[in-house]
From TrEMBL:
Its main location: membrane. One of its GO terms (cellular component) is plasma membrane. This is Membrane protein. Keywords: Cell membrane, Membrane, Transmembrane, Transmembrane helix. It is a multi-pass membrane protein. It is found in: Cell membrane. The chain crosses the membrane at residues 32-59, 98-119, 146-170, 190-213, 225-248, 254-280, 332-353. It holds the Pfam family Virul_fac_BrkB.
Length: 360
C-alpha cells in the first residue's frame, strides 16, 4: 500500500471514519436501513386513513358547504350519466363514517407506529452495542410501547415542522412573496429563502439529540453526542431541501406526478434511516478499541527445558563397566578365531594348487 495512504489513515478523523464504515458494514447497517424503510412505508397506511377521516370530519361537521360544492362538481362532470350520482353516494357514505375510521386508524397507527420506533431503536442499538451478540435490554412491554409512541410523536412533529420550513423556502416561496406583495424585492426573497434554515437546523438538532438519548444502550460522551446531533441536523436539512426540490420538479409531468412522490418518499425514508445508523456507528466508534497483536508477530525462542532432578540411571555404573569388559573380550576372541580360520583355508587352497602343478 502506498505510503501516502498509510499517512492518511493515520490521521485521527480519517481513522474514525474508517472505524465507522467498518462497524456500519459489519453490523448490517444497509439491511437495517432497508427494514426501517419498509416499516416506514407500512406505517403510512394508517396515517392516510386518519387523514381521510379528518377530511370527512371537516366536510361533514365544520364545513358542509364545501361538501355541497364537491357534490355539485362531481354531478356537473357526469351530466346525464348515472355514475355521477353513484360516485356522490359512495363519497357521502365514506365521509359520514369518519368517526369509525378515526378509531380504526388510530388503533392501527398506534400499533404500527410503536413497532416502527421499536425497530428503529433496535437498529440504533445494534450499531452502538459493545458486542453485536449481546442481547438487547428491554423493559416492560406496556411501558416500552408507551415510550415508543411518545418518541414517535416527537419525531413526527419535528420532521413535519422541518418539511414545512423547507417548503416555505422552496416550493411555496413564490406564493408567500405574492401574499406579502414583495415579489419584486430581492431582499424579501433572500429573507424568505434564508429565514427557515436556522430554525430548521435547530429543530433537527433537537430531534437527533432526543432520538439518540432515548435509543442509545449506554451513555454517549457529551461531545460526540452533540457533534453527532449537529451533523444529523445538517444532513436531514439537506435531505429535506433536496426532496422538496425534486418533488416540485415532478409536478410538470403527469406520470411523474403520480409515481414521483412515492419514489421520493421511499428514497427519503431510506436515506434518513441510513443517516441515523451511520451517525450511531460514528458515535459508537469515537474511541479506538485496543489493538490485538497476533501471537506470530514476534516469535520468542523458548528456553531449554530443565529437569527438576537428574534422571535415575537404568543400570548401575559398576555393572555397566563389567558388561563392557566382557563384551570387548568376547569380541577379541571371536575376531582372532575368525582370522585363524580364514588363514587356514587360504593355506589349504594354495597347497592344493601347488601339488597339482608339480604333478603335471
Amino acid at each position: 500500500m502506498p505510503q501516502w495512504i498509510e499517512n492518511l489513515k493515520a490521521k485521527p478523523w480519517i481513522a474514525h471514519l474508517l472505524r465507522m464504515q467498518e462497524r456500519f458494514t459489519a453490523r448490517l447497517g444497509n439491511q437495517f436501513a432497508a427494514a426501517v424503510t419498509y416499516f416506514s412505508v407500512l406505517s403510512l397506511v394508517p396515517v392516510l386513513l386518519f387523514a381521510f377521516s379528518m377530511l370527512g370530519m371537516v366536510l361533514t361537521v365544520f364545513r358542509p358547504d364545501l361538501l355541497d360544492w364537491i357534490r355539485q362538481l362531481i354531478t356537473d362532470q357526469f351530466q346525464n350519466n348515472p355514475i355521477g350520482n353513484q360516485l356522490v353516494a359512495v363519497m357521502e357514505r365514506a365521509l359520514s363514517s369518519w368517526a369509525t375510521t378515526t378509531v380504526i386508524s388510530l388503533g392501527i397507527f398506534a400499533w404500527s407506529g410503536a413497532s416502527w420506533m421499536a425497530n428503529l431503536k433496535s437498529a440504533i442499538r445494534a450499531q452502538m452495542r459493545a458486542d453485536l451478540g449481546d442481547p438487547e435490554k428491554k423493559g416492560n412491554i406496556a411501558a416500552e410501547t408507551l415510550l415508543n409512541l411518545g418518541t414517535l410523536l416527537v419525531v413526527l412533529v419535528s420532521v413535519l415542522l422541518m418539511f414545512a420550513l423547507a417548503s416555505v423556502a422552496t416550493t411555496f416561496s413564490e406564493l408567500i412573496l405574492g401574499w406579502l406583495g414583495v415579489a419584486d424585492s430581492y431582499l424579501a426573497r433572500a429573507a424568505v429563502y434564508a429565514a427557515p434554515v436556522p430554525v430548521s437546523l435547530a429543530v433537527g438538532f433537537g430531534l437527533f439529540a432526543f432520538l439518540y438519548a432515548a435509543a442509545a444502550p449506554r451513555r454517549i460522551p457529551t461531545r460526540h453526542w452533540l457533534i453527532g446531533s449537529a451533523l444529523g441536523s445538517v444532513g436531514l436539512a439537506v435531505l429535506q431541501y433536496g426532496a422538496t426540490l425534486i418533488w416540485g420538479t415532478f409536478s410538470g409531468n403527469a406520470a411523474a406526478s403520480i409515481f414521483g412522490p412515492i419514489i421520493v418518499l421511499m428514497l427519503f425514508f431510506n436515506i434518513f434511516a441510513t443517516l441515523i445508523l451511520y451517525l450511531a456507528a460514528w458515535m459508537a466508534t469515537a474511541q479506538a478499541g485496543p489493538v490485538v497483536r497476533s501471537p506470530l508477530a514476534a516469535d520468542v525462542v523458548d528456553a531449554p527445558a530443565e529437569f527438576a532432578e537428574p534422571p535415575v540411571p537404568m543400570v548401575r555404573e559398576a555393572v555397566a563397566q563389567k558388561a563392557m569388559k566382557v563384551g570387548m573380550g568376547t569380541g577379541y576372541v571371536i575376531g582372532a578365531a575368525t582370522g585363524v580360520g580364514i588363514g587356514a583355508v587360504v593355506a589349504a587352497v594354495v597347497g592344493w594348487f601347488s601339488r597339482a602343478v608339480r604333478k603335471k
